[in-house]
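Form 7-S
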Amino acid sequence: MLTIGGTARLVSDLHLRAERPDLTRRFGEFLAATAAAKVETLFILGDLFEYWIGDDDLADPFNTQVCRLLRDLADCGTRIYFIAGNRDFLIGERLAAAAGITLLGETERVAAGGTATLLMHGDTVCTDDLPYQEFRRMVRSLQWQADFLARPLAERRAEVENLRRRSAAAMQDKTAAIMDANAAAIRTALTSHGCTRLIHGHTHRPGHETIALAAGSAERWVLSDWDSGRGDALEIDAAGVRRIDLSR
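Output:
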């Protein structure tokens, strides 16, 4: 379990891409404010990028820009941890080294503000969305990733664009309930990891709730995605959890 002293901030689902420079500017401003506040730790809980097709794409000017922003914060002394999302699970050690971040697994237990806290992207608890879970198992397999990364960058980029279009079309036929986190999966995750706080993103449905467990109660915090009129971060210290409004 990671023990987080001082102050930690958490963000998720920024979906940064070159065609949305407003989001990149907002991210840069957030990182600068985080450095100025001398925040000890930043967690990025997935989908930092709209998509990531492999660390051999680091030379792309936009990717270089985002890595530079993160490296500047790391050089100021903030530890940066990253949990992969469903859009950027191919981020690897080359990007981590360039950006000064530490890669974590799909879930991470942290002691934050005196509370055992479970961090994740959030897609693993959306168990009602069976087609997505099947797709997730496919793309997270080592064989699929090896085959994908062996293809030329241009082919990978075209394939991702095709997947994005298909995903957007599929979402129109799914109810909000199916795409949200499953209550039983949330309780199982908290119980199996021995935590009384869960923080995740992915669903784009920011909120806070109390959850009844067999051994007592727990809480769940859901981060917002970043878009026009949306965006937030959570801040944790000894006083508890606070939501920071970053919407524009």
